[in-house]
Amino acid sequence: MSSTRRQFLSWLPALPLLSNPNFVFSQEPSAQELRIADAIRQYSAQGYHRTGTAVDTVSGAWLSDRIQDLGIPAFMDPIELNRVDVLYASFEFNGMQLEGEPLHDCHYTDVNGITGTLGPLGSDAEIGVVMLPPSTASAIHSELDAIRRTNRHRAIVIVSDASYPSDGIAMLNAEDFSAPVGPPTLQIANAHWEALQEAMAKRSQATLVAFCEHKEGKAYNVSARIDGTDPDLAPVVIMTPRSGWWRCASERGGGIAVFMEIIRALIEEPPARDVIFTANSGHELGHLGLDLMLHANPALANDAAIWIHLGANFAATSSQVRLQYSSESVRQLSAGHLRRLNLKADIETPIANRPLGEARNIFDAKGQFLSLLGTNPLFHHPDDRWPDAVDMVKTVQWANAISNIVKDVSRG
Q1: How many structural domains are present in the chain?
Q2: Spatial separation of the C-alpha atoms in residues 62 and 210, rounded to whole Å
Q3: How far apart are CA 203 and CA 107, in angstroms?
Q4: Mean pLDDT in residue range 104-128
Q5: Would the pLDDT of 274 be above 60?
Q6: 372 pairs with which residues across the strands?
Q7: 328-353 in b/e burial notation, b at 16+ Cβ within 10 A?
Q8: Which residue has the higher pLDDT, 6 or 323?
Q9: What percent of the chain has pLDDT over 90?
Q10: Average pLDDT of the segment spanning 308-335
């Protein structure tokens, strides 16, 4: 282990291997179940996985070290970025002062903030307010995006949906991180939604502060490769995001755990094709890490035999698992393996539609992909933690299914 990696890993909390008193298997767990549970538990325990933070760096070193423990060289590929650091953020109305989290792709206030009238998003109020549902595919998300780009309001307040716990903020991804747009926008919890609605109805005055700075920072993609027996065959790429808001145990932890299980499966059954592994930081910043990886390997998106995307939320309690395919042949290949395990996706994205998550980058490049993701009642919320947010049975099932598919396509 390198001295740098050893230094990073020394910051991790001391965690016993899975003798976790907060999680009980329904029966004696297998070695695989213990591995998957332990990977998600440790990932969750590391802390807030925002890109470019100390936790993000430590988590990358932890993942790299786990891969190297299996005998596969792993690398931490640097990403330069201007991270948003929040100096002070608050929202005050009718004598109440609430903490908030700014968007990471908007413009910001000075330390005094902006004072103005409250009203619904799209009204003539100086500070527009909207409650957003968890699904980013909703019409109101599109409306918010359009209004941000027209600067209709001097500032915007986004309230986490009523379906979330009353405390804690469900964050939005920063799709425009590289070129921020729109007025200062603050995200708050829903605990005072009723009082805020009354204040809007009365056109009350409020003050929003989103005082932030950009700071040069560094994040890391984690990469590895298993060489196949036939170098003339097109490679398979396994990708999973590894950064996100809060601890994101079920959002990101499932992908990290299955990523490791696929490496183990291919060590046991060596592939004919080269298999490239990439765990990317920058997910919540418009897929920054994957974009840079593709920029460094411009032919790979299209030339790979297939990309396997281990996306968000399939490990979540109450998740509706979604599969996305680049073609009918990929769909049929997946369906055959799923039938053998008596497994089925709850949702399928129509093949012609631009997919969700990092699979969209491969779709845009006209590459071949299979993408696994799902819904999550705690999406982007601080309560997405081990163990309650994770459905272990479902996670193990999909780990087996995707590992079998990868072994099949990597044979040539």
Answers
A1: 2
A2: 33
A3: 24
A4: 97
A5: yes
A6: 310, 323
A7: eebbebbbebbeeeebebeebbeeee
A8: 323
A9: 91
A10: 97
Please give the Cα distance from 412 to 405 (Å, whole number): 12
CATH of the domain at 148: 3.50.30.30
Same domain, yes or no: 288 and 170: no
Report DSSP state, residue 19: -
pLDDT at 276 over 80: yes
Backbone angles phi, psi at 273, to 5 degrees: -85, 150
What is the structure's pLDDT at 8?
A: 52
Question: In this structure, are 88 and 53 located in the same domain?
Answer: no
Residues in contact with 36: Cβ distance below 8 Å, sequence separation at least 6, in sequence order: 257, 258, 261, 392, 395, 396, 399
CATH of residue 386's domain is 3.40.630.10
Same domain, 153 and 265: no
Cα–Cα distance for residue pair 270/145, rounded to 1 Å: 46
Regarding whether 97 and 186 lie in a shared domain, the answer is: yes
CB 357 within 8 A of CB 373: yes
Among 192, 215, 238, the domain-final residue is 215
Per residue in 325-347, pLDDT tens?
Answer: 999 999 999 999 999 999 999 99
> What range does the domain containing 122 cover?
82-215
Structural tokens at position 213: 């700075």
Nearest C-alpha neighbor of 294 from the set 367, 381, 376, 386: 367
Cβ–Cβ under 8 Å, residues 14 and 360: no
Please tell me the predicted confidence (pLDDT) of residue 3: 45
Q: Based on the fold, state whether residues 266 and 336 are members of the same structural domain.
A: yes
Residues 271, 389, single domain; the answer is yes
Same domain for 359 and 228, yes or no, is yes
The C-alpha atoms of residue 272 and residue 223 are separated, in whole angstroms, by: 19
Say if CB 322 and CB 375 are below 8 A apart: yes
Domain closes at, from 164, 191, 215: 215
Tens of pLDDT along 72-81? 999 999 999 9
pLDDT bin (cut points 50, 70, 90) of residue 168 is very high
Predicted local confidence at residue 9, as pLDDT: 54
Answer yes or no: is pLDDT of 203 > 90.
yes
Taking the C-alpha atoms of residue 267 and residue 247, their distance in angstroms, rounded to an integer, is 30
Instruction: Say yes or no: 122 and 208 in one domain.
Output: yes
